[in-house]
Design goal:
The chain is an all-alpha fold. The protein has helices at 3-47, 82-107, 121-130. It folds into two domains: 1-47; 82-130, no CATH class. It is 60% helix and 0% strand.
Length: 134
């Protein structure tokens, strides 16, 4: 094979690889666009309220029969993260309640904050808020 023929073959291969790369890049772009679309739809689904369902008109207390009472609103207990609790305890310690903070941790049968069950964080935060208030 002559050098020119060999060069021509190499250039043909380069062209084929280049075209393959372009096709792959186009497919990646389509996949990326699809992922963006799905992520946007999921975000929208979780960031907006559900459309109002058909509801019956709300009865006023005067319209309710005597034995029926309006439902009471149940207060929603705030949830706290480890970081929230740690920050509150650190603040109380800096305010001079270091021993009280240690006693609170012991109250929840723990030696350190990370030993406390996260389900107990709300109650612990109420106890922390009570420090220095009485």
């Amino acid at each position: 094979m002559s050098k020119m023929s060999n060069l021509s073959n190499v250039l043909d291969e380069m062209i084929q690889y280049g075209q393959g790369m372009i096709a792959s890049a186009e497919e990646l772009k389509r996949c990326g666009d699809g992922l963006i679309k799905v992520a946007t739809e999921i975000k929208d689904a979780f960031s907006t309220e559900e459309p109002a369902k058909e509801t019956k008109p709300v009865k006023k207390s005067a319209d309710l029969p005597k034995e029926e009472t309006a439902p009471e609103e149940v207060p929603v207990e705030k949830t706290y993260s480890f970081t929230d609790v740690r920050g509150a305890l650190a603040a109380k310690s800096k305010e001079g309640f270091k021993e009280e903070v240690k006693k609170l941790i012991s109250k929840y049968e723990a030696e350190k904050l990370s030993d406390i069950n996260p389900d107990d964080y709300a109650a612990l935060m109420k106890d922390v808020e009570g420090l220095g208030n009485g």
